[in-house]
Fold this protein.
Amino acid sequence: MNGGQMFQQQVQSRIKSRSMGLKLFIVCGLALVMTIPAFFVDDLVDERTHRANDVVKEISSHVGGSQTFLGPTLAIPYSIPPSSPDGSRRHGVYLVFPAQASAAVKTQTAERRRSLFKVPVFQADLNFTASFDLNGVPASAGPNVEFDWSRAEFIVGVSDARGALTDGTLTVGGKTVTLAPADVSQSLSLGEDQAQKTNLSLFGARAIPVQPNTQFSATATLRFSGAQRIAVLAYGKSTQLSVQGDWANPSFDGGFLPVGRNVTPSGFTANWTVPFIARGVRAEGTSDSITGLESTALGVSFIEVADPYQSVTRSLKFILLFNGLIFLSYFVFEVTTNKRVHPAQYALVGVAQIIFYLLLLSLAERIGFDFGFLIAGSATVVLLSTNAGWIFASRVQAIRALSVFSVLYALIYMLLRLEDNALLVGAVASFAAVALAMYLTRSIDWYGSLPDPATPGQ
């Protein structure tokens, strides 16, 4: 071999090795570029989520939606004489909450479906008890306020009256009457934030006379349907609530958490106790002066633990890490086998990753996220491993790729399920992957020639 040929081979070897260094940057760039289509997948997830929310609203419009209840409360009409001869008399409603309140709620749940979407709905039997002490009432009225006790009315409130399954009843002193739209007021608006206001439709029992400076008890019975959530306001100075249901995955929310709970696969029970000092709402006052009642809601939400759209959205947050590890694996295969992989083949690997998310989304909303991930992940791992066997023309590399990609997909699934520790595990796994890549490429002379595949340590 003459000197010219040797020089030409050295130049070609140096160009080849430098192209491998450049290839690494190209692969990193491709990993970044292939995350862009993930935004379109994320938009698709948002679209499906909005569609699911529309189904919730549609079904809720028929069964009553999220329901909030106010137990028996006494409403007394009042008026204030004009301060001047040409003035007008002002009118309002004075609310008196019971001294002691106790409520029991029993729910039966089911799932309503529209196409691929399902919504938890419930039927609830509610029993309210209220003990009133009207001695000294009204205590916070002004000196010129005139109360019309003849029009005093017991009221109960519900956020969506369309969910009524039977007529409600109220019993006082052995006399039972059917609840009807209240005369003193048709509705009660709770909350100052317009976006989060709670509007209650009021139903009353005016036929039961009320006398000042007396003590008595009242009970009310309701049967309502709704969807997703049920809540009872702490309607007494001291309130106790017990809720029993057959939903296996309840979420307890609102202003107070239950003091006792028991959740089993067959259902749940929960109990609340809210003393007057914790309630933070006045015992009586005008309807305009009663504030903070909406924050005393004692609620139970009937949730789907495995929300496929939320899980897919979380998986998309790891796509850069996911693509990076897959591309890095292919690059390590390339440099340790001395077999060149074209950037177009890397792009096809990235496309396979995007299709994995589409498969995951379409399967998760039908069979659940766990089984969807198993099927979509298994199919993608087999495809990527087979592709590695085609590229490197080696069954050994195909088996090697199958092992590596199976671990990577298992890692991603574990990250999605760890939640609180996902960041720590993802960071440690990424560090370990980069360290392994450094070790496997330790003998490569990036400024010299490519290593021989048979070289020990490769």
